[in-house]
Write a structure and sequence with these properties.
- There is one protein chain.
- With about 300 residues, the chain is mainly α.
- It has two domains: about 5-90, DNA polymerase, domain 1 (Orthogonal Bundle), CATH 1.10.150; about 115-290, Orthogonal Bundle (hpI Integrase, Chain A), CATH 1.10.443.10.
- Helix content is about 55%, strand content about 5%.
- It is built from 13 helices and three strands.
- A three-stranded antiparallel beta sheet has the order 1-2-3.
- β2 (about 165-170) and β3 form a beta hairpin.
- α1 (about 5-15) packs antiparallel against α2 and α6 (about 130-145) packs across α10 (about 245-255).
- The N and C termini lie far apart (about 70 Å).
């Protein structure tokens, strides 16, 4: 079996059997391709079926010199998944990564914006340009409903239920969830859809997509990052802000204001609540207030 054949079959497995998104499949594929490139660079005459533990170890030791522990762990995890797929398909009896451990990494707390910082970013968007109203609606949707970038760019007009104040969001693995739509976000979406988007010559295949570029096509992930980066710079915010920062802020502000973890988990589309629990560690002021308010011996 050739590496290219195995990688192609693996991607099909991820798409059909595990239902992963194209972005996730591309990420897994990148990790495997990096290992394949390493093998070819070192002129190793090994195949997916003859690969042994020592080949993996040499690769891991090499990349450890140039990437951080978190990236190493992701690379090892991707290779484990790939070789487990080969076992699942009956090509191998064991995995060369069975006795290889990932580096220990601490839990990285997400960057969070304060409400006044978010308001400054939104206020910095130039509304004299029609695209400014679109960009305002984008930021309001990222923060107001906690969407991922992929969920935002794939959001459809038919997924917006203004009367019920809900968004039907398609997340990872094509899993759908209903997310509440706040009044401010709804107002900006209506303004964009009714007053701005209607004047765009929309391409036929993008008729139902909410957020479009000036040529009537669906926005890319890169464009969303550019919009957020420019708005943040114009607002004079020095934090490293990405579209995902608004998602983190959405969850953190909900928790700070008394929302329960289970509700936040459902709105965020987290499969495991331990993913949601990271937001309990973001703002210690909220935890201190909880102790002072509810613990019987918190006061002298």
């Amino acid at each position: 079996m050739r590496w290219e054949t195995a990688l192609t079959d693996y991607k099909i497995y991820l798409r059909l059997e595990r239902g992963l998104s194209e972005n996730s499949i591309a990420s897994y594929g990148y990790d495997i391709q990096r290992f394949i490139d390493f093998i070819e660079l070192n002129d190793e005459k090994i195949t997916p079926l003859s690969c042994k533990k020592e080949h993996i170890q040499t690769f891991v030791y090499t990349i450890a010199k140039t990437v951080n522990p978190r990236s190493q762990a992701r690379q090892i995890s991707g290779l484990k998944s790939f070789f487990n797929f080969l076992i699942f398909e009956g090509y191998r009896d064991d995995s060369p990564l069975d006795l290889i451990d990932s580096p220990k990494i601490g839990r990285k707390l997400p960057e969070v914006l304060q409400l006044n910082e978010i308001e400054k970013i939104i206020s910095s968007i130039d509304l004299s340009n029609p695209l400014g109203h679109r960009n305002t609606a984008i930021v309001e949707t990222l923060y107001g409903s906690g969407l991922r970038v992929s969920e935002l760019i794939n959001l459809r007009i038919s997924d917006i239920y203004f009367d019920e104040s809900l968004l039907l969001v398609t997340g990872k693995g094509n899993k759908q969830r209903l997310v509440p739509l706040g009044s401010i976000c709804a107002k900006q979406l209506k303004l964009y859809l009714n007053d701005i988007r209607v004047h765009t010559a929309v391409k036929k295949e993008h008729q139902d997509i909410v957020f479009l570029n000036q040529h009537g096509r669906q926005l890319t992930r890169a464009m969303i990052f550019t919009i957020v980066r420019n708005a943040t710079a114009n607002a004079g915010i020095e934090k490293k802000v990405s579209p995902h920062t608004f998602r983190h802020s959405f969850a953190t502000h909900l928790l700070e204001n008394g929302a329960d973890l289970r509700s936040i988990q459902l709105m965020m589309g987290h499969e495991n609540i331990t993913t949601t629990e990271v937001y309990m560690h973001v703002d210690t002021r909220h935890l201190s207030k909880t102790l002072n308010d509810f613990h019987p011996r918190s006061k002298c």
